[in-house]
Amino acid sequence: MTRFLGPKLRERSTGDKKSAIINLTSYYTEWPAFNAPLFSAGKSFSDCVSQVVGYENQNMDVLTVKGMPVKSKRNPEGVLPEDLVDGIFLDLGHERVSYGAWQHSMFRHYILWQ
């Protein structure tokens, strides 16, 4: 998609206006799931591609979102989807990688440093 849309997005990025690409991956890029290796590998590939696209297009906002579970019947302990989206839009234009809600960022530090 970036191959075909990239030139148009770059053209639109002028002055203080920037185009944005938000790529959704998963926290399984940093904490692989032993029972879903192909899922983790696919998400890791998406993470790498997203970050390379961001470095190649410095004049655009490219944000890699490493999402974690949101609140649902299956996962009642997750964060509200609205909180995840709000966190992503707060990070857009300021960060290259977002975990969405602040609770997800804190959990990332927990799983990486335990």
What report would you give on this structure?
This protein is α/β, with parallel strands linked by helices and 114 residues long. It has a domain at 36-114. It contains 4 helices and 3 strands; from the N terminus they run H-E-H-E-H-E-H. It has a 3-stranded parallel β-sheet. Strand 2 (61-67), helix 3 and strand 3 form a beta-alpha-beta unit. The longest helix is centred in the middle third of the chain and has 20 residues, at 37-56.
Low-confidence stretches at least 5 residues in length (pLDDT < 50)? none
- Mind describing the biggest β-sheet? 3 strands, parallel
Q: Categorize the overall geometry.
A: globular
Rg, rounded, reads 15 Å
Strand order of the largest sheet: 1-2-3
- Number of strand elements: 3
Query: In angstroms, what separates the terminal alpha carbons?
Result: 38 Å
Arithmetic mean of pLDDT: 84
What is the share of helical residues? 40-55%
Proportion of beta-strand residues: 5-15%
SS class: alpha/beta
Order of helices and strands: HEHEHEH
Secondary structure tally, helices: 4
Structure summarized in a few sentences:
With 114 residues, the protein is α/β, with parallel strands linked by helices.
